[in-house]
Design a protein that fits this description.
Shape: globular
Order of helices and strands: HHHEHEEEEE
Helix content: 10-25%
Strand content: 15-25%
Largest sheet: 6 strands, mixed
Number of strands: 6
Oligomer: single chain
Radius of gyration: 23 Å
Length: 149
């Protein structure tokens, strides 16, 4: 059985009982050391839009091709998507996007008129709200979509 760290720091059976019922133990005083502050590395936090744009570039929503708007609308509604690969996990092997755990990014095809294949254009979404990236060159470069312009 794993004992929560808070119980171990308080120490003693009175502290255990107090922690279980939610009452501060009588032995705890202001002199008790505070637990160490923990700040997660930036890679785990949701980056600010400005930080993302600086890392990969930025594009106004209104400047995207109409097919990218169609793809973003499909993503928002949950599909159906034109290609079986749409919605699959994007691995970020190129390392252009901020580093995240596997499964954080998903990719979707932006149809290229006149192309007999999926073409090079994609929308890659992150787990954060409105974290949508557009690439017109098959992952060589990305622009964070600014939905406010």
């Amino acid at each position: 059985m794993r004992i929560p760290p808070r119980v171990i720091r308080l120490g003693g059976s009175a502290a255990l009982l107090s922690a279980l019922i939610g009452v501060a133990p009588a032995t705890a005083t202001a002199a008790s050391p505070a637990p160490p502050a923990h700040t997660a590395p930036a890679v785990y936090g949701a980056p600010s839009p400005a930080a993302l744009a600086a890392a990969v570039g930025s594009v106004c929503y209104t400047d995207l091709p109409s097919q990218a708007h169609d793809t973003l609308d499909l993503i928002g509604s949950g599909g159906p998507f034109p290609y079986s690969q749409d919605g699959t996990v994007f691995q970020n092997r190129e390392g252009v996007l901020p580093s995240r755990s596997t499964g954080y990014y998903h990719e979707y095809t932006v149809i290229t008129p006149g192309s007999s294949t999926r073409g090079a254009r994609r929308i890659v979404t992150g787990d954060a709200a409105e974290e949508d990236y557009y690439t017109a060159d098959h992952y060589e470069s990305f622009d964070l979509v600014d939905h406010d312009c």
